[in-house]
Amino acid sequence: MKIIVDTREQSPFLFRGYDCQIEPGTLHTGDYSLAGMVEKIVLERKTIGDLASCMTSGRARFEREMERMRDFESAAVIVEGPLAEIRGGKYRCGLNPDSFEQSILSLMIRYRVPFLFGWHRRHAEWLAFNCLRHFWNHRVEYGSRVAFSPFRP
């Protein structure tokens, strides 16, 4: 399995110790995909701070990204940090924690793209790898279409 990592990704997962190859590339949408499947699966990585910015000053740009992600067979936003950090207000912008969480829920429903929260960076990397691995296994080994998101038909 070859993982494509967007060259613009500022703090990319390295996937050290995972059974995969890494290849830099330019992705039109998201930060991670699979070689030969960049139009089928995409993952977007965010820290809690990045996500807070996406809910405030960067909201329009992030919604355009989510709009593009909706058209993929499988897509997810992988967050480096637990939802509890949002509930606890452990981020820098002045966004109310309840408003922050409600915005996430609204985006998930509107765009049919799940947000997966890792407990920390290493766990988020594990989530990303395993999302890609399961997609790969279903497409390559089983030859089936994947309905990755609980919001997709």
Features:
alpha/beta; three-stranded mixed sheet; three-stranded parallel sheet; 6 strands; 20% strand
Would you give an account of this structure?
With 153 residues, the protein is of the alpha/beta class. It has 5 helices and 6 strands. 39% of the residues lie in helices and 20% in strands. The strands form 2 sheets. It has a 3-stranded mixed β-sheet with strand order 2-1-3, with helices on one face. The radius of gyration is 15 Å and the shape is globular.
- The total count of helices amounts to 5
In spatial order, strands of the major sheet run 2-1-3
Q: What order do the helices and strands follow?
A: EEEEHHEHHEH
Give the number of DSSP strands: 6
Taking pLDDT < 50 over at least 5 consecutive residues as the criterion, the unreliable ranges are none
Give the averaged pLDDT, no decimals: 92
Estimate the strand proportion: 15-25%
Brief account:
The chain is α/β, with parallel strands linked by helices and 153 residues long. It is built from five helices and six strands. The two termini are 27 Å apart.
How would you summarize the topology of this molecule?
Blueprint: E1 2-6, E2 21-25, E3 32-34, E4 41-47, H1 48-54, H2 59-70, E5 74-80, H3 83-87, H4 97-111, E6 115-118, H5 121-141
Parallel strand pairs: 1-2, 4-5, 5-6
Antiparallel strand pairs: 1-3
